[in-house]
Amino acid sequence: MKLCILDNDILEGQLGETYSSFGAMFIRLFRGVGVDWTMEVFNTQHGQYPDSFDDYDAVLLTGSRADSFSDEPWVVELRKRVTELLRQKKKMIGVCFGHQLIALCLGAPVGRAPQGWGAGRMTYDWHRPDLPHSADRTQIALLASHQDQVFELPPGATLVASSDFCPVAAFTVGQEVFCIQPHPEFEESLSAHLMDKRRELLGEDKYHASRASLAHGHEGEHIARMVVAFLETPAPLSAAV
Hints:
Structural class: alpha/beta
Number of strands: 11
Oligomer: single chain
Distance between the termini: 20 Å
């Protein structure tokens, strides 16, 4: 398996020193569950893309501080490229910003969540016991950090996870697309840093409750194993272009 990681942010200061990049966090996450894939990272804010996506079995879109619906030139270019990858039925994974951008390219409405920021450990109802490693699962707990949301399932998508706060928390499209709003790659210390930075935006009640939630851990590695199985399952021949 050869994975192209499109990294959609630049971590600065302490975050950059500690975690390097979102792309590096995903590499650590997948290595931690035992994969031996070739994984290469390209930073879209710097205009970096592979010469050809044909050289990769799958493409992963990371999170970002940017809005997926932004008119920033690099975001516009990313949407253009993702739309073409979707047309080709390339296997794709989207996380947070990546989840929103793929949904937007598929025709779903995306925007600021009226209920405000999602932060800390959040629990989601699980709707896909048919997915790998999910037979007995009814809920999953993951670390979230977002103020935008996908408001409706994209056409042709199947709901994977939801909550009252985030009704479209994860979805799939056939055997080609797996998107999820929270961050399986996050560590509790990173989540805490982001909440400290946004304490005023969150408000004291949400800040303290979200900070306290980190003590309960999260299931990022479980999602990583699902993603690995999803990517390594061949798409039906009829899906090929």
